[in-house]
Amino acid sequence: MARLSYREAGRLAIAEAMRADPTVWCLGEDLGRGGVFGQYAGLEAEFGPDRICSTPISESAIMGAAVGAAMAGTRPIVEMRFADFALCAVDELVNQAAKARYMFGGQSKVPLTVREPMGMWRSSAAQHSQSLEAWYTHIPGLVVIAPATPEDNYALLKAAIRNDDPVVFMEHKNLWDMEGDVADDATAEIGKARIACAGGDCTIVSWSAQVHVAMQAAAELADDGIDAEVIDLRSLWPWDEAAVAASVAKTGRLIVTHEAVGVGGFGGEVVATIAERHFASLRRPPLRLAAPRIPISYAPELENQVRVTARQIVAAVRRLN
Asked: Residue 11: what are its φ and ψ, rounded to 5°?
């Protein structure tokens, strides 16, 4: 067991994967200098510039090279710096990587891991703060992961690297410095949720940094005698419908909360699935709490207006109970 930051846990996962498998390598801008957030610090010294590859500033070239390399038998880890910047490479990811296994009749695979730092972080403004996970869950062929803790960042990144399909791995920038215990043998299964807090009065579903906001709300509700169950999905595609359904069968109430814009957000998929397939368990209509459909401002006061707060979650739970 070690006490690691979210950043350090991801770096350790990559180092262990590269030591175990010589076909694992990393490419992206400034990786030789440790990456924009220091998440590759020290790796070039151990593995050399051929495996920790600093690239030109061209997201489409980075992704295209990685897709070809993955199809040729290696396991690339692509660093996109910001999830917003990855939009310059969606053609290579969505039209090529996601569809290759299907279009080649299973004769080819694309074991590609795409790291996309996401979310609001220190007044990064409209072009550096978006949470775009729902875009990728819409695409057949892509796996989408959004870890909330250092241990999950470690375990799920290792699972992503081993996966034979392209994985969009979304790490929240506001969690880089968050510390937590990481077991030496920590493992996580893609598609399995984590019960972050057990309870019987209301189910709160979230992922990434918003899980911690939900946990704050659960703690406040517990002081008032309301036991909320917080589910950290961890993996958005595939997602753990069974875990959410089992919780709703117990509580009869469902709230899904996320940092991303609510319109077209993945929370709508969770709510719709439970309403369509497990409606008999619901004693109240399910609710979504998400960001409004506006750009994220630079000014902290305006940025905070976009955030879903623990107070909002508490109020929503009380409305359902």
From this structure: -65, -40
